[in-house]
Amino acid sequence: MTTIDIQPQSQFFSNNYWRKLRQVQICKKDEEESITETVMGKVKCDINQQFQHLKSVISAKYCKQRDILATTSIDKIVRIFSMDGSLKHQFENSSDYDKTLSFSYNGQFLACAGAYDKMIRIWNIDSQELQFQLKGLKSRILKVTYFNNRDDRLISITQDNQIQIWDIKSQTIIQSLTGQQSLITSIQISNDDFRCVTGSVDGMIIEWDLKNYKLKNQWKGHQKGCFALKYANGGHTLVSGGADKKIKLWNMDKYKLFKQFNGHSSPIYAIEVKKDTVISCQFNQTLMWNMKSLSIVQQISSTQLDYCFVEIMKDSFVIGYNGNGIKVCDFQ
């Protein structure tokens, strides 16, 4: 796959950008093929179910409190699935499709955003109705994420390089964080909700203090865009991936690079971590590798994906799948 130059910044996440990356292949469910790549260790990864939409799935989000999976698609529908792959219910945005999802801590609410209307929709999972909309943003929304341990705080990132912290009860922005000079592409909140990190298309990484709402530290993480971030080891380690095809492990006590994984052949767009296992995704391949030894455990090859994402569930994880579904892979 040819590396796409993501400059200028205004094209990132735009329709033109994704159109360049996307080679749509609508795959019927009965034509699904098994993974045949070699397993280089004891960990096995197979397709065991497929969650369907009418068109390409953009992202997925797992809710551990309720053991359900939410997916959003360019068919303008957000679907909620049980773990056996059956559809529980769905929410539809008639104006445009949402691109980013986040469950509240208790799993009762699902935040959806990314459409052109610059609004965040909060859906009630129990009543299956739209609870309310968060309005007032002046730029398109790229990311939304609830805090990990509370239902009344939500972070949004907009295309004007702004970070907004919302109070859900009052439906207002209580603080805006500024300082990232280029388009923000990724965000990760620490498990204790005291800090978060953001990455941008210029390769910069910034860690923010979420108690005092200020910048803690910033550094050049990647020579090109930083697209994926994940805290590990209780927040003492940060795993970052970018357009330079490198995954870097940072000591967050000293803000120093201490390891680097060079196993990818194209930009990395998504990262998840479970204990010492890292799952990292480029558009035509997903790698599972050991964070301590930097050795590859599993390779999951694919043809060109429509969208690139990974989400960890209980004993499995989901990744993007060509066409209108996703792959669910087992750790064991």
Automatic annotation (TrEMBL):
InterPro entries: WD-F-box_domain-protein, WD40/YVTN_repeat-like_dom_sf, WD40_PAC1, WD40_repeat_CS, WD40_repeat_dom_sf, WD40_rpt. It comes from the Eukaryota. The keyword Metal-binding does not apply. The lineage of its organism: Eukaryota, Sar, Alveolata, Ciliophora, Intramacronucleata. This is Uncharacterized protein. WD repeats lie at residues 134-176, 177-218, 219-260. The keyword Repeat applies. Keywords: Repeat, WD repeat.
